[in-house]
Every structure is written in C-alpha cells, then in structure tokens.
Amino acid sequence: MNSLTVRMARWSALHPWRAIIGWLVFVVLCLGLGSAVGVNSAKTADYRVGEAGRAEAIAAEGQLERRSIEQVLISARPGALDEAGAKPAVEAAAKDLTARFERLPEVESVAEPVLSGDGGILLVEAALKGEERDAKDKVDALVAQTGAVQKANPGLLLEETGSPSISKGVDKQRGEDLALSEAITLPVTLITLLIVFGSVTMAGVPLLLALSSIAAAVGLSMVVSHISPDTGIGTNLILMIGLAVGVDYTLFYLKREREERARSQGKLSSEALVELAAATSGRAVVVSGLAVVVSTATLYLASDVIFSSLATGTIVVVLVAELSSLTVLPALLVKLGKRAERRERRRAERGKPVRSRTRGEGGGRVWAALLRPANRHPVATLCVSVLALLALAAPLAGLKITEMSRDTHSREIPAMQVYDRLNEAFPERRVTHDIVVRADAGSSAEVTAALSKLAELAHADPLFTDAQRIRTSDDRRVSVLELKVPHLGNSDEAYDSLDQLRDEYVPATVGGIEGAEYGVSGDVARYSDYPAHQNGKLPLVLGALLLVTFGMTLYAFRSVVLALLGVVLNLLSAAAALGLLVLVFQGSWAEGPLNFDSTGSIGSRVPLFLFVILFGLSMDYQVFVVSRIREAVLGGVPTRQAVLDGIRSSASVVTSAAAVMTTVFTSFVFLHIIEMKQIGFVLAAAVLLDAFVIRVLILPAAMLLLGEASWWPSRGVRRPVRENREASVVAADVR
C-alpha cells in the first residue's frame, strides 16, 4: 500500500497539470453521470421491519396497503361570517373541494366530510394513489385546489396537512438547514485553516478539495443509489462527513509537506518533498480512510435501508476524499512549491534575505504544558482521565431509545401547525392500528367474524374509540381491520393500545383461525418495531465493529497491544459522548440554548451510528499520532521520548483537524430535525473528547507506562529500540 501511495504521488508530482485536469474531469463526470441516471429513492417496502413490516407486506399483497392521506380543515374566519351563514358556507366549500379532489388523477378517493365535536370545523380527507414515499411529489396538485377554494371563499379558513404535505415541508426545511449549515461551516473552516497556514492560498486548498470531493460524491451516490436505495438524508451526511474528512486528509498531507520543506532548507525539490509526505502522511491517510470505510460498512449488517443509505453515503465520500488527497493534492503542492521557490529566488536576486521556513520542533509551550501530566504522572493521569470519561458515560444507564415519529417534527413547518389543530379538533382520529389477516378464501367469513369480535373488545376499552372499518381483498384472502386511538402516536397510551392488541385481543380472536397469518401495523407499530429490530441487530454490528477496528489497527501498526488499546479508547470516548447526549437531550434544561423540544428520549438510529462513525473517525487521529511515534521509534528514538515528540509534533495538525470536524458537526446542532441535531451534537462532543482527552492524556500516559511493550509483537519496531539502548550502554562503558 505504501509503495502504491508513493507511486501515485510521484506520478502526480511529475505530471501536475494532468493530475489537476484529470481530477476536474472526474468531478464533472461524476456529477454528469449522477444527473443522467438520477436518484433511486427507497420505496415503502424497503422500510418494512418486524411484525408491522410483515403485516404491511400482506396488506400490499391484497392491495389493501395504507394510502397517504391529505386532510383539509375548513372553518369560518372569526368575525367574517355570522353564525347563520357560516355553516352553509363551510359545507359548500367542502363540497366544492371534494369535487375538485375527485377530478385529480393523483387522488384515489375522497371520504365524506366529517364535523368536529364542537361543530366548528369540517374535515375533508383525500387518499392519494401509489407509494406512500412518493406522495409528497403529488401533493402540490391538492394544495393548488385548496388554494383555489380558499381564494373563492375569503370568509373561510382552509388549512391543509397530512403525511405528504408534512414530508414536503420537512424536505424544504432540510434544504434550508443545509444552506444554514454551509453558511456556518465554510467561513469558520476557512478561518481555522488561515490560522493554521497563515496563507489564503494554502488555506483554500483543503477547502476546495473537500468541496470538489463532496460534489463528486453526490454524483456517485446517485449512481450507487440504484444498488443501495437513497432515503433522502444522504446529501446531509455527505456534506457533514465529506467536509470533515476531506479537510482533515488534506491537512495531514499539507502539514507534513511543509515540515519536510522546512527541514530540507531548500535542498530537496518539490517533487521529492511530495514523495516524502506521501510515504508518511499519505500512508496514514490511506489507512485511516480505509478504517472509516470498513467500520462504516458494518452498518449494512443492521439490515435497515436507512443505515445502508448512511453507510453508502459515508463510504463514497471518504473514498473520493482519499482519492483527491492521493492524486490532485500532490500535483497542487508541486505547483505551489515551485511558485514559492521562484518567489524566493527572485528575492535572493534582488539582494533581499530569504525567508526561513523552519519551524521549531516541540509543539510549543502550550502542548508541553498539556503533556506534562502524562509525562510526569502517567498513572495518576490515566486513572483520573478514565474516571472522568466513565463519569460522563454514567447517564447512559438511563438511556431511552425511541423511533422519532411525525410528532417530533419542527412546528415551524406550516403543515405541522395544522396537524396539531387537527389532533385537537378530532382527537378520535389521532392514531390508526391496522390488524391484517391472511387466510384461505374459504375462511373469509370466519376472519370477518373474528375481526368484528376484536372490534367489540376494542370498543369496550378506553384506549380505543368506536371508529372502525373492515376491508377485504377482491380474492377474499386478505382482510384489514382499522381501529382508531384517541392519543398521539408517541404517547404511552398509544403504545399501551398496541401492546393490548398484540398481547391479548388479536391472539384471542384471529389467533384462533387455523392457518391464518396476522399482524398489527400502523404508525405506532412501526415506531415500536424499528427499535426492537435494531436492538436485535446491535450485538452483530458492534461485534463486527470491534473486530474490524482491532484488525485495522493491527494492520497499521503490527501491534496487538495498540490494537486492543485503540478498541478500549474508542469505547471510552463513544460511551462518554453518548452519556453527554443523554444528559442534554433526554432532559429539558438545554431546550432553550439548543432550540429543541425534548422527547425524553434519543433517536433510535443515533447510538449505533455514533459508534460506527466515531470508531472510523477516531482512526484519523490514532493513525496519524501513532504513526509519528512509530516513525521516531523506527529511527532509533526510545519509545518514551518518541511518544512525547510524536504527540507534540502532530499536536497542531490534530488540533486543527479536530477544530474543523467540531465546527462541521456543531453546525448540525442548529438544524431542526431532532435526530440530525442529536447526531451533530454527539459527534462534535466525541471528536473533542477524542482529540483532547484520549490523544493528549490517556494515550500518552498508557504508552509511557507500557513502554516497549506497546509494540508487541512487532519485531521491526522493537529491534531499533533494543539497538539504540545497547548503543547507549556501550557509549556509557567507553566513557
């Protein structure tokens, strides 16, 4: 791998314009190809898991699947109409709207208008044709008709909501959030890079390469979506991860090239300096990138379309970012290096002093002070740091994981505001459970009788309303009973009603039909089954994650000790970050500063996603820092001194990389989508803990205590250590 990295860098350095033009062509081709093939969005069937998923599949087989519903509330504006004229006007508007909806090709059926309990609001419901996931693309036609009726009736108020319009509102908000994230992240990242390099040109290189990598990854992700369907959050993730790792990989490479340039004092050509950087930091970039890819790939084991989409987006953007750092970056460094050399020669010809590029070794007083506890008191530093992280992880004991439902969306979305008014005016229609049964056509009468009995049991239970409907497929093999619940989908009562159905009512009725297959689906069932499905996959994913992390670290450093240490440190930082997440988001004390409404729980996808992504990203720092230490040891420096020198020499780049990553992740805390907000917060916290606690306190303390044992069983590292020690002994004897 190292020789391949050097060969790629050498070719790019010898043919810089070819590499630069080739990269630009690659980015354009990726975007063009992606635009040509389009995005293959995940279908409703791709999301099915657990009992709810099986029941939905049975209902779809009988063409009784749930349809997306749009709901329009019609009421008189306060003071616009007198009481006598309000009712006829509302009814006429409902009749007009119903007729308009029925003429639309997107609409399958329109229900009879329903009056609210207080008689003030009339509800018109329209079921849309086709996939649930595609309904948001059809809703504009209904919104237009609602607007037309509103315009014709200025004295009335028509408000539209429903799953399609809410989904459309969420997509619009997500787009605005992305723009906000970019507006925050890009300037702060540029300022950070300006501080690191002191040059607009050098600061612009990492940012431009990261942005071009993101552009190429977006195009490639469209192509790959035809293998692994896109769930609509891939672009968010590509932006977040792409900017973080794209800048980091370029930063690692750039800093090493500048170090070698300063060390050579003009004796080496730009091409030679790039090769040196490729042989050291280039290898670290490749290894750390592969670690992110392999770690992220464990998400496919979750057998979940959302995790698969997250994994695909991450893998694509990391591979593209690696490619840019190994091809076009060396070419840019050569061009920039030659320009700097020409500038210095002109200065020398004019008799001006040549500006020294030598930077002091040792990392400065700040890092010397930060490393002092680990250097002087490694045992105490290790114990205190580990205990502090364990204390941060303590809130994990109260972790509550739930599926983030429609009720958790931001109320800044107009359709969500109408959704709240709908639930208030029609509480009996808040949640629907679907009891799906498949049996032989000859058992149809028995199935209908059992479902009717089930409806009677539910009617006598205060957890349910008396609203019910039984539908049967044309071939009489599939039947669906719809039961309404007067509670919000994320309430305890809604979950209790689901348990009541699954544990008692369904087994006592349709459960007695010989050969029948049955299940309960609906929104609450989905919210319940998804976390259960994920928890069932959790041991497999985490086991694979620990194994591949161990394997990648072992491959990178040929050390079992460091591989085990890396796994333990990653677990510590991930647990501490999750503990902070629980502390902040499961309570209500941070709602104001972070602008969210606490659900008293953590999104079901957040913990697993954190573990997988953090294990991969942590390899960035570990590979880079330990590579510098290993490099020094191979050069004959004693392990103790190599640990301190390696961490000091890499301190500025690790700090800069952590600052960039933290900025990127923190920008997602300002988003409206609660799960993205939680992911941004927990990743930012994890990066800070990893960079400033793990790499500055725990890692050096542990390696100082382990000494040469850190490299066991790698003979290639321990031999120079022994030879250096023996040489010191001989020198002492001679003296």
UniProtKB/TrEMBL annotation:
Source taxon at top rank: Bacteria
Membrane-topology descriptor: Multi-pass membrane protein
Location within or outside the cell: Cell membrane
Pfam families reported for this sequence: MMPL (PF03176)
PANTHER family xref list: MEMBRANE PROTEIN MJ1562-RELATED, MEMBRANE PROTEIN YDFJ
Residue ranges of every copy of the Membrane transport protein MMPL domain listed in the record: 64-380, 414-720
Source organism per UniProt: Streptomyces phaeochromogenes
Protein name: MMPL family transporter
Record field: transmembrane: 178-200, 207-227, 233-254, 284-303, 315-337, 379-399, 538-557, 564-586, 606-629, 650-673, 679-706
Coiled-coil residue spans: none
Key words of the record: Cell membrane, Membrane, Transmembrane, Transmembrane helix
